[in-house]
Amino acid sequence: MAEFRFRLLTPEGEVFSEDIEYLSCFTPEGSLGILAGHYPLVAKLVPGETLYVRGSNDEHWFVLSGGFLNVRRDETVVVSDVALESTREKVKELASKLGSVRNRLEIGEKPSAEREEFELKRRIKEALSSMRTGK
């Protein structure tokens, strides 16, 4: 399968930069899959997991606090405030901690007020923090 360069950037710098075969992340409209040669686009990312695949069934995960995706023909760049390398098990744990918030975003429900958006960000930070510390 054809490869493309995937770069992941945070305020601390470049977290990841390698050639991969497939990338999957979440936008407000739902899951988005990227393969080599994908049509160029820019998209907002919602908090959650990002899957990338190198080689046959070589799956790896990052958990993102949200951010932006820039797809070009030969390179895809993700920019996020927080990006933690993770495992499938930790991703499932995070999803359960976040509850139904991402599901509501995926079906197009927008936060009804700044307070709800603030609460979402607080819950994400707590979940990411617990993943860092292992608590």
Provide a quick synopsis of the model.
The chain has 135 residues and is an alpha+beta fold.
Order of helices and strands: EEEEEEEEEEHHH
Helix content: 25-40%
Number of domains: 1
* DSSP E strands, number: 10
How does the major sheet shape up? Answer: 5 strands, mixed
Second rung of CATH, namely the architecture:
Sandwich
Query: How confident overall, as mean pLDDT?
Result: 81
Rg is 15 Å
Overall geometric form: globular
What is the fold's blueprint, element by element?
Blueprint: E1 4-10, E2 13-20, E3 22-27, E4 30-35, E5 41-45, E6 48-53, E7 59-64, E8 67-71, E9 75-79, E10 83-86, H1 88-98, H2 101-106, H3 114-133
Parallel strand pairs: 1-9
Antiparallel strand pairs: 1-2, 3-4, 3-6, 5-8, 6-7, 7-10, 8-9
Describe this protein's structure.
With 135 residues, this protein is of the alpha+beta class. 27% of the residues lie in helices and 43% in strands. The protein has one domain (1-135): ATP Synthase, domain 1. The chain contains 3 helices and 10 strands, in the order E-E-E-E-E-E-E-E-E-E-H-H-H. The chain has a 5-stranded mixed beta sheet, with no helix packed on it. The protein has a 5-stranded antiparallel beta sheet with strand order 4-3-6-7-10. Strand 1 and strand 2 form a beta hairpin. Helix 1 (88-98) packs antiparallel against helix 3 (114-133). The chain is globular, with a radius of gyration of 15 Å.
